Amino acid sequence: MIIAPRVKALTLAALLILAVGAAPTPESKGVATADRILQSPTLDFAQARQALALYEEALATAAAPDAALLAHLSQVCFILGDLADKSQRPAYYEKGETYADRLLQVQPQGVAGHYWKAMNLCGQAEVGGRLKGMKCLPRILEELKRAVALDPAYDQAGPHRVLGRIYYEAPCRPLSVGNLQQSREHLTAAVRLAPECSTNHLYLAETLLRLNDPAKARQELQQVLTATRHAVRPQGLEEDRREARRLLAELAGNALKTGP
Predict the structure, then answer these.
(1) In which domain, by residue range, is 75 found?
(2) Rounded to an integer, what distance in angstroms lies between the CA atom of residue 25 and that of residue 226?
(3) pLDDT, tens digit (0-9, with 9 covering 90-100), for 104-144
(4) Residue 14 covered by a domain
(5) Do 148 and 106 touch, CB atoms closer than 8 A?
(6) DSSP string spanning 136-169?
(7) CATH code, domain with 129
(8) Distance between CA atoms of 164 and 148, rounded to whole angstroms?
(9) Mean per-residue pLDDT for 142-151?
(10) Angle, to 10 degrees, between the axis of helix 26-38 and the axis of helix 45-61?
(11) Exposed/middle/buried for residue 180 (C-beta within 10 Å: 0-12, 13-18, 19+)
């Protein structure tokens, strides 16, 4: 069969489009911009708000609920809760929990929904006081344990890192779930899975110090100084390094006091 020249031209044009891919949509451009914003080494509250608005706009125009977008939204709400003034923090954490719940409806067996729900509940527990913390703790532990089972390496070994920190910070039984040995186990796993994360090393070092193991704690603190990523936001890397230097100086001072 002979194809008319115009039809041939249209067919070739269609093939070329398929070969190079469709042009980026405004929605995908907005998501890419928001992703870049969150990687800014000077990320601040206004920038994080901009990223939230771009993600929300993309979600509003999506044909169907998008799991990746909902995960981004829950994450950026957690970051905003970290950056916001005290009066604004609870609202962002609650919004982040809402997005995590929507994500779990779309992807109930995905790690992201369980993890970001736990993280935003952690934020609510932190700003809500002791009673709020006690109320949230069982749900936080449940969601983090599910996240560990689904993907322990997610978010730079975040499920292990946060569980380890909870076991470090919480009072010991019978008052709460605090357990330094469990903290050490989870944070050791976090360091093994994501050695590039400064916060994994810093948290493990602090647990080791409380377990009276200064030699191993010193090794972890030295790793903080060469790690390349922070657990939450880029500028946190230098904050971790400052704390590591402070603890190393403290260890050096203690060694001088107890030396021969």
Answers:
(1) 49-151
(2) 39
(3) 999 999 999 999 999 999 999 999 888 888 899 999 999 99
(4) no
(5) no
(6) HHHHHHHHHHHHHHH-TTHHHHHHHHHHHHHHHH
(7) 1.25.40
(8) 12
(9) 98
(10) 150
(11) middle
Is the model's pLDDT at 60 over the cut of 70? yes
Residue 154 CB contacts under 8 Å (≥ 6 apart), including other chains = 111, 112, 115, 147
Residues 92-108 have pLDDT tens digits of 999 999 999 999 999 99
Query: Do 110 and 67 contact (CB within 8 A), yes or no?
Result: yes
Residue 201 domain-assigned (yes or no) = yes
Residue 169 near residue 186, CB atoms below 8 Å:
no
Q: Is residue 15 part of a domain?
A: no
Which residue shows structure tokens 């532990």?
A: 141
Helices (H), 44-153: 45-61, 67-83, 89-106, 111-150
Question: Among 22-26, 47-51, 212-216, which stretch is predicted with the lowest mean pLDDT?
Answer: 22-26
Domain boundary at 151, 173, 208, which? 151
127-131, Cβ contacts within 8 angstroms, sequence gap of 24 or more: 127/81, 127/86, 127/89, 127/90, 127/93, 128/90
Residue environment code for 38-76, b if the CB has 16+ CB neighbours within 10 A, otherwise e: beeeebeeebbbbbbebbbebbeeeeeebbebbbbbbbb
Cα pseudo-dihedral 115, 155, 29, 44, rounded to 10: 90
Q: How far apart are CA 162 and CA 141, in angstroms?
A: 9
Measured CA to CA, the distance from residue 146 to residue 162 in angstroms comes to: 13
Report which DSSP code applies to 2: P
